[in-house]
Amino acid sequence: MLFEICDSLSGIPRKHASVYTVTRAPLQFTGLGSRNVRTLLRAYLDTERNEAYNLLMRSLRHRTIQTFSALGLASLALLVPGCISQPPPSGVRYPITSGIHTALPTAERRILLWADPPLTDVALDWLKSHQYADVLLPEQGPFQRMQVSHRFSDRETALAVAKEMNADLVLFLEHEESKEGALIEPHCGPLFNVNVDVRGLWGEGGDTALKGNAHYPHCVALTDQTLRSLTCQALATAWGYRPSGQLEIPSTLSCTAGQTERPPIR
User: Fold this and answer.
1) What is the pLDDT of residues 8-22, one digit of tens each?
2) CATH architecture of 96-256
């Protein structure tokens, strides 16, 4: 009798209706009318259907979360190695320069070049290619036997030599190298952080006429080519043939820039 009532109320097969009868405690229908029994069974089956639906939805939500979590972890596992395996950006190959001048010597002025090789050779070529024909070296003067370093710290000696040789301008060039301190590489290992400074002082009075600097932001090999490139860049910036900063200007152009132009007259 119970099975027929269940079937008529819920519309589900008897084999499923029997599940509801064994999953709960036995129902007591003694003393109840048929209408009350139907009402009780309807409420009972509604409760069972709701619980089954809620159980099904909880199971689906749990499986969905597990699926997306697994997909998220798998995607992260694929992305992280990809990020790590990306090669670092290639090193910048153009120097950073700075420079300024208050006045430039004319081509007729006599310039005393105060530097050590190989900067001496590079500066001598650069000056001659820019129409400076009267360029002197300390070895040509009366103090050729003096053991002095050709650095800006010895500017008093250099100015004294310039006075004896009637030089109008003393052009100092010096370079420094270290194993650390590069802009994008704090430690250079087998390479070097290389820096070239250029400074010009008027022979009379020792006032600053021009100055320039060039260095690479990364570590480089300490070769003659490196020093040549930085020397040309520093000279070109001090003379105003190129602006200060890090620009895509090859050093070969800085070595030849302005060769057909005459510098401003002092």
Assistant:
1) 444 444 444 443 333
2) 2-Layer Sandwich (3.30)
